[in-house]
Amino acid sequence: MPEAGHYGHKKNDGICNGVCSSEPASKAVVAMSRLKCALRGFDFRVLLALLIGVPIVILMVYTHGQKVTYFLRPIWESPPKPFKIIPHYYHENVTMENLCKLHGWKVRETPRRVVDAVLFSNELDILELRWNELSPYVSEFVLLESNSTFTGLTKPLHFKENRQRFEFAESRLTYGMVGGRFVKGENPFVEESYQRVYLDRLIKISRIKDDDILIMSDVDEIPSGHTINLLRWCDDTPEIIHLQLRNYLYSFEFLLDDKSWRASIHRYRSGKTRYAHFRQTDELLADSGWHCSFCFRHISDFAFKMQAYSHVDRIRFKYFLNPERIQDVICRGADLFDMLPEEYTFQEIIAKLGAIPSTYSAVHLPSFLLQNADRFRYLLPGNCRRESG
Ligand SMILES: *[C@@H]1O[C@H](CO)[C@@H](O)[C@H](O)[C@H]1NC(C)=O
Ligand SMILES: *[C@@H]1O[C@H](CO)[C@@H](O)[C@H](O)[C@H]1NC(C)=O
Description:
Keywords: Membrane, Transmembrane, Transmembrane helix. The chain is an alpha/beta fold.
């Protein structure tokens, strides 16, 4: 761009002319003063840029540092090995024999027993949806709660205090409580794995037997009933299989994607099976249920969850916990922590930028939710306002 350069040069001269033109002297002196002028102009602009630019850059990195690193994630991190996705066939008007056959499996004479084991925090509504969805297929419910959050905050024993709500599961329930260790400043994952080890013991105490089906998932990762029914009725299913769940945020109004995979189903082997919430195999059964994150009734539950679990470091500003802000974020389908999508390619990051669009479909949701729509209204599309208590 010769024009721009020329313009810059002329302008530079212009500034200096005013300051320097009165000096009548030799060529050398003129050259010197020109150099000085050029330097002075240069210094001035650099200084100005530094004075304004550096604080802006520092402020941007401070407020958006996470965004910068997340946006650049595709450069420094490659995606994990893709799952082998198993097609999932289901229709209520197809026999179990045919469903098993469609998956390449044989149907059993009698179904396997099913044990559902969860680590419980405070998500009572979601637990009620979960247990009602799974109840027709589950032989044993196992639930562990603690008086400590993963971040070492004291928490009430929400399940124990509301146990009468789960009367229908009582005869099949193995309940356990583990006291927190309350270590200050520790990585939340340490308390989490400590609690999962306890859950393993509790599963052993329950009436689980070898070859039973064990569901390992967080409370808010709800396998659909028909998925569990399929896996308990068919033979030759994989020993361990992950479930692909639809990812929802705040309620069933905001469908993010179908990439939830942490839930897994195990054929129980005593002494070998360990409760885990990470990737354990390559096989993933498609469209097997719902993962409803941050699906709480009260605004206060959101603030609690934001501080209680492995998200604490994301609360970069106190105002993130402001109830009006939380309510506004929920209704927009935006991000509570003002973060960028965690993706592995620029294409996916860009596709997911901004708020999640609303879905108006309440088709294929947990049946107990629709049967009790009045009680769980806030989980259905078009009802984002929460109770403030
Ligand atoms: C499927 O539905 C049709 C029509 O409603 C019915 O006649 C048929 O018996 C059903 N089949 C099965 C396998 O349930
Ligand atoms: C947590 O539970 C343990 C075990 O019951 C108990 O000893 C401890 O005092 C409790 N801590 C708090 C802070 O409630």
